[in-house]
Design goal:
By secondary structure, this protein is α/β, with parallel strands linked by helices. 45% of the residues lie in helices and 15% in strands. It has four helices and three strands, in the order E-H-E-H-E-H-H. It has a three-stranded parallel β-sheet with strand order 2-1-3. Helix 2 (37-46) crosses helix 4. The protein is globular, with a radius of gyration of 13 Å.
Length: 93
């Protein structure tokens, strides 16, 4: 019996820098890639994701959008919190 794969949402613009990390995620999870906060919010409204990943640069616009009810939905969906890591996987900040 096949073990169900975790669903992961990746908010990132397509780039060769991201491709290695995203391909690694794809080998272990079902990955849904989006390139905008609005698209991420739409998906979160209708689906469940085990994890949500974004580039550190993409997090600032997301943080600014927290004023809106839609962005607040993302943080409520995350539940446990947010950890920002660099390309090597080390926590930033």
């Amino acid at each position: 019996m096949e073990v169900p794969r975790n669903r992961v949402l990746v908010l990132a613009t397509p780039s060769t820098v991201n491709s290695v990390a995203i391909n690694c995620l794809k080998s272990q999870c079902d990955v849904q890639e989006v390139d905008s906060i609005d698209k991420a919010i739409e998906l979160i409204k209708g689906d469940h994701f085990t994890a949500i990943f974004s580039e550190a640069a993409d997090f600032l616009p997301l943080e600014r959008a927290l004023i809106s009810q839609q962005a607040n939905l993302i943080l409520n969906t995350i539940g446990e919190g947010v950890c920002i890591v660099d390309r090597e996987g080390a926590p930033t900040g």
